[in-house]
Amino acid sequence: MQLVDQGGKDEINPENEKDWQEKVDDFSWDVLFRNATVFDGSGEPPRRMDIAVRRGRIAAKGTALPEGPARRTIDATGQWLMPGLLDIHTHLDLEVDLDPRLPEVVRHGTTTVLFGNCSLGTCFGHQRDESGQDPIVDCFTRVENIPKPVLRKCVDAISWSDTGGYMDHFADMPLGPNVGAFVPHSMLRVEVMGMEAAISRDPTEQEYQEMESILDRAMQQGYLGLSTDGLPFHYLSNEPHTDKRIPTQFAGFKELRRLMKVLRKHNRVWQTTPIIENRATALLYFTLTSGRLFKKTLKVSALSAMELVLAPRATKAFLGFAKLMNSWLFKGSLHFQALGTNFRVWSDGIVSPLYEELPSTAQLIALEYDDVEGRHALMHDPQWVAQFRDDWMHGRTGGDWASFKAKLGMPDHLVIRDLHRLVFDGAPVADWDGESFDKVHERLLSFMDGDSAQARSDAEREAFASLEVRPETDADFMLFLMRRYDKGFRYWADVSNIDNRATMDYLMHPQALPGFNDSGAHLTNMAFFDGNLMSLKLAQQQGDAMVAKMVKRLTKEPAEFFNIDVGTLDLGAQADLVLIDPEVLKDWDCNDTREYVFRDLFGHHQMVNRPPAIVREVMIRGKLVWEDGEFTQTLGEETLGRALRAA
Fold first, then answer.
1. What is the Cα–Cα distance from 332 to 322, expressed in whole angstroms?
2. What value does the CA radius of gyration of the chain take, rounded to a whole number of Å?
3. Which of 73, 155, 474, 504 has its CA 20 to 30 A from that of 420?
4. What is the pLDDT of residues 131-158, one digit of tens each?
5. Is the pTM higher than 0.85?
6. Do the Cβ atoms of 136 and 126 come closer than 8 Å?
7. Given this model, what pLDDT does residue 351 score?
């Protein structure tokens, strides 16, 4: 057993007592974790051992390390000690400049977050111009479902104007976790072409070259790569462009191929979502990973590996294609980001990312958040009502081509519209909370048929009695709720990974990469901060050997894939560690700890997940930032994490 200083110098053998006494004055440990079950990120089975931290680094590892040099000893008996976890897909670039602590991820043992995903980010500054364009607000509002007042607070905090200044500014703030950033393609297009041109035409040759030059410079500055997006329901939010998609979706294959050449040169990553409108086109674009076709392999990190409720086999098709691309035949490196928990999405009336997919409901979402009158008028327009009924029932009536495709698991729309899958959680009538929509609908129909006993309270009776026209279909019932309550009825639906039946298969799939949580996005709709903990829980059910593999999947593997120096417990490595209580983890249900809280930071409510007592300690750069269920004073007082520069 060797004891090694944080700089890798002065190796001594603590079994030689005289040698130890001579050197003891040269050594002091800030913290000694004693008797922990250590998962080191290598994937090897855990070992019972001690780990010492000095000056922000892993200073020593072994059994029975002497406590004398330690300023503080933490008894970790029965606890799991592992490298800090990585969240490989977030939109915390909006929050970090308002609260650099990023507390909602830290409490989950996450010590590194990656942002600038889905073609959106802030690395070019605010990008506002004299015409009143506000690109960050325009792009983020509907794509990531963040209210405009919150976004404006985030944009107002921006003090840089280029990619270099963005990376440098993290050194001047009391950063909590480490951060890594992609260059966002939508914002790159706006930077070079302006908003109007970015959503209306192809670049000129000069603009192509300028984009390539900016991207190349950003890669030299340490950016992780480039992010793009292909989801068809990602729209702009500002007039006059509410019917236009975000700029990245106006780029053709030629543009991406040229930009990917820059990424290949620097061995960086392309982060993207598939073009699900046309799978053939999506597969064509994914061939850009091929080293055989394009002379050098391109690493691609795509969304997303999960079992969709309405298309359970869709992800397997993409993973099968990834296996082909990654074979010797094509020499690719294509991986799909895997979510480690059930994909539960909350909605406030029609305000939800789910409903951007339907043309009629997208019109409602395009209106300003507080435009109740505008939504009310639209929902009483006969033409819109007819379109809504068609949209809501599309592929669900039986007897037509759309319904046949849906039955085969290839639906035209992935939005959940089956009333038994929609569950009230914050209902306008207290009796409805915890009930599925179909139960309430059934009682309403019975009430309208004359069975007044179906109403279980005065409030429910009043709600039922307010309806003059019988809602025969579930489309009519949904229309009733929207018209009467607008955003005032809250409910959830699991859109994928129901009961986590297939989640482990995707987390461990060789063409997948765990760690996707979408933290910081969809403020009132999602709360996946806990995805990494849930991944560990699912692995725990298969034994310590599987936990060891999962820890590697959440630490060392993504760190290597994205070319960043975190995710290990190697001697001399930055001391980012998390201590987890496996007994509490075993009994935890993530659905029980999701909360809807008001955050003063945003002046707005947010979905969070705050499981108690699972994460005992979190350390970033050798400093304890979370202990016994509370943040320490260190978090937010000094710079702990750093801007990770690839390679």
1. 8
2. 26
3. 504
4. 888 999 999 999 998 999 999 999 999 9
5. yes
6. yes
7. 86
